[in-house]
Amino acid sequence: MTSFKHLLIGAVGLAMAGSASFAQDCPTGLETVREGTLTVAVTTFAPYSFMDAGNQLSGIDGDIVNAIAEKLCLTVAPLVVDPAAAIQSVIAGRADLTTGDWYRTVERSRVMSFSDPIYLDSMGIYSRSGTAKVEDLVGQKVGTVQGYLWVASLQELLGDDLQLYPSSVNLQQDLKSGRIDFAVDGAAPGQIAMQRGEMGDLKVAISEPDERVPASIQPAQVGFPMNRNADGLVEAVNGALAQLKDEGRIVEFLGKYGLGPEFAEVGEPRLVE
After folding, report:
1. Residues near 181 by Cβ (< 8 Å), separated by ≥ 6?
2. How many whole angstroms separate alpha carbon 67 and alpha carbon 132?
3. Cα 100 vs. chain centroid, distance in angstroms?
4. What does the alpha-carbon distance between residue 110 and residue 217 come to, in Å, rounded to a whole number?
């Protein structure tokens, strides 16, 4: 009886010690929009960011944010927004960060902070031929989405043959219908759609490097846009990201949505023009 009692006391002590250790792992004093909560401006941009059928934050960015929040002992509060309002939600202090394959750019860094780079987003060429050469776009009807890093370069190279679209959905519709011959868009979503048999006779290739289009040479690094004054939270998020990378979970999250480990090889942090 005495022996059992000692064992029981010891087990309780170990449990309490474990609980105390867990509690000590939780950062204290993190300033967020709402105490104890990580408010996330969620854009709908599969496979990076979307709300699933159970109304839970999902996608590559979503899964990473959920894992970060768990490490920081925060509850995720999704705030579904239009992509045009996502950045402003963070700047205005309505959200702590936003998801949706956001590039770490010089322009954005002037008004906000960024997490460390998480993965790469390469320029993709969508076609029926499967070409990866920028040269094959010259003299053809080409479409791309407004706001990408390669837009200015392609405008200079292609002139009036380049048509700008407000979204990837509109771009893909015109490519599939034959109104344009080629599309230039993020490679990852197209490659995933191709694997799933959703692209029909279209093929997606990561663009070969071409000096005329700098974005084809150095892919953009993706990070989480965060409020410029949230130094403590940025540091905590970066610490959690470093742990997730060391644990191999970033590669795991990318693989879950059909992207290879090479997308996680981000290199040294940089901002793109």
Report:
1. 127, 140, 141, 142
2. 35
3. 5
4. 24
Contact 120, 215 (CB under 8 A): no
Rounded CA gap, 36 and 23, in Å? 14
Q: Residue 112 in contact with residue 229, Cβ under 8 Å?
A: no
Cα(67)–Cα(71) distance, integer angstroms? 6
What tokens appear for 104 in the block? 């770490």
CA dist 141 → 32, 96, 183 (Å) = 47, 41, 9
Beta bridge partners of 163: 143
184-226 pLDDT, tens per residue? 999 988 888 888 888 999 999 999 999 999 999 988 999 999 9
Q: For the segment 124-166, what is each residue's pLDDT rounded down to a tens digit?
A: 999 999 999 999 999 999 999 988 889 999 999 999 999 999 8
Residues 6+ apart with CB under 8 A from 89: 41, 79, 81, 95, 98
